[in-house]
Amino acid sequence: MTAAAVPQPGSLDDPWLDQLSKAIWSKPAFSMVPIDVAEVPRGHYSGPPLDEHGPRVVFFGIPSDYGTAFLLHLIEKRVNLVAAVCSTRWQRTHPKADLIARIAGYLGRPVEVTADANAAAFVRSLRAYAPDIVVMASFDQILTAQTLAVPTGGWLNVHPSLLPRHRGPEPIYWTIVNGDHEAGITVHQTVPRIDAGAIMAQRRIEVYDEDTAGTLTKRLVAQGLGALDETLARLGDGPADPVEPRLEQGSYEPPVRQTELDWDQPFERIERLVRAGDPDQPPFFTYRGQRRYVYAVRRVTPDAVNTEGLKRSYGTSLSNARMSLQRLSRGARPAAPLAWAGGPADEMLAVVRDAVVAVRWRPVGHTHAFRPLAGQQFP
């Protein structure tokens, strides 16, 4: 099935912010790890002024495609953004200037930077902003009841799943791995228990057969912008009527660590792991003592190997491919990838439980996945 077009955001009426927004939304897939942006704006914010009288909003986030898109949307809607809060925890593996802080500073809004959002000193600072609402979109710290009690109108989290299904830090990964046919994004009240607060708004979309975590994230963010607008409008009209989730009917999945592929699995399972890991957490296999990170797999059938077109593409030496196919036809045990003579340098052949597959790999995966911090949570 061909993916539907993703709605594009509106104009922010400022050259630098519009350029940044365009750069993010022109990507075919969104990442949950921080954006590496080196450009510093040389001028001053020239767009329309933000609201100075509406509900006082503080934004919490890390500068991923996901988090940055929601911050830019709040600016486009001219909300009364009184401060932005950045985490330093992710900088252990990404020692770069924080784009969230840079955007807020460009707007002339205060920035708070914290490694522990539950520390007494930080809570005092947050309380000084007198926030009515906190909006959180991809933040890597778990918050206590004391911190969550600061905003008078509620603390909102934008979580990319159909809560209460896929509670936890990486719901999009598990949505694809589990073969869900439907995905969603939820704006919910934040409580001390992870992703367990009352639901304010929710959007549903179909999961396409070709979706990766990155393409699905982009489509979910596009839907989540409207869900956030709906929630802020409801809160602006007075007390909302959220829906309490039935947690016993949902699920919780833990953080994803680096995943080594087990070739003794069906092709469908391996293919889902690969799509779920693209782009942030690709699975790997070990070849000659080195890890190779997989970003695509496809079936190779006996008929395909014998076609003249494949011979022209991969050369005339197909002995390794034929050997693998013969082993599979004899009921051989699954085998790790081996070199495909005459094939691309980044492609190898593997025998899985029910197929021979061509495996495309890269020498490195995302560095964010190498050294996760204790208690680190995304999004």
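Next protein, fold it too.
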Amino acid sequence: MDGFSHEVLSRLPLADAVLSLFSFATDSEFLQQVFEEHRGRSYESVLTFPTMVDLISDALLEHEGSGRQAMLRAEEREELDASRQAAYGKLRRIPISLSNAFLACPTDRLREVFPEGTASRLPASLRCLDVIAIDGKKIKRAAKRLKVARGYSGTPLGGKALAALHLRTGLVVAMNAHLDGETNDAPLVPDLLPQVRQRSQRRRLWVADRQFCDLTQPHNFREENDEFLLRYHPKTHFHRDAAVPLRKGTDSQERCYSEEWGWLGKPGGKKSLYVRRTTLFRKDDEDVILVTSLTDAEKYPATDLMDCYLRRWGIEKVFQQVTEVFHLARLISSTPQGTIFQFSFCLLLYNLLQVTRGYLAQAQRRQPDTISGEMVFYDVHRQLISLSELAGREAVVEYFQNPFPPAELAGRVQALLAGVWHDRWIKSPKKRKHPKTKPTTVINGGHTSLYRIIQASKPN
């Protein structure tokens, strides 16, 4: 790297840190190994898998999700040896197995350099478990570029993915996908759980919404001595054990709850499970009913379980962030396979940002959840564009193509981000929950002026 490019990089510590982490997680030799193990029937000719990763990363990190812009610039730099049509075709055919592995395997590397001191503190009784929240995501707003899709009204769905979020680190550690965006989450569970289990040495607590509360999924969750915490669904009947007395209590907000023990399903049935059911009574909202295999109320207090289930909402925030921040709303491919790969890529970028945010929190001695990932990524985006425009690309690529070992990388990123801070990165405080708004006013003719709306709102 020449002197000018090195000076530019020294003034862009966020870009330097992010590219160092990204090059470590997606090293070319490592990606080639991932491709060989999970490629299925796909093959390489002129376009290699690492080249496709470079193109998509440029599209998402620099060009706001525009694959065309990334490919045009790659052609100008003579880095795209094949045609754009060939690149789009390769993206259209990426197998699901490769998309799943592209999230899980690089994330394994990011977990090696995750700043442990910034991990989220779970309730004390659950710290001996790896708490994993799972939920499904429909990939929306697929473009109707395929000839067979052009005659349909509306916007079709791409694929469907079921993701697993490690609540302590906030990293999405694995996913399993299906080509049909309308498919149910349940069939995706059996192939997701082994991916997570091979990456965790401790017992796991699976946290999931009510759609997983049946007589099949809890048995999947209980394999290898794992536990589960699910929101109860009345489709699965609960039969109370009259021999165990009812317990009552209040949570930190002085809301009442009750606990009872019994069976999911008919007592003595082949698929029935003995569980503990906790009901939190809420005045202005639906009661929250949880069922869990953690039947020891002394060892696992109800308040800890309710707090843990509340954190399950974090995976919904992940889906919102990858859609709004990492441009999942702008899909590059028009096939389910391509949309699933882009979703996998966006989840990997989210994990990359979580690690970066962890180092920022460590340097500032703050909790990571007080730092806005969206605001940090906005500045990362600006710095990456500046580096791309001002420094010689060949020199930058050469500088980052040999990633640092994990221990050295962690120290380097820590040093780069030690003095980097802006108060604008502080997350806005939670907004107070407002009452339900008034029903929408229907306007004759379909439109009106703001002036007339303002005048109509004034008292007579």
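About the second fold: The beta strands are 130-138, 160-166, 171-178, 204-208, 227-231, 238-240, 247-250, 256-264, 273-280, 288-292.
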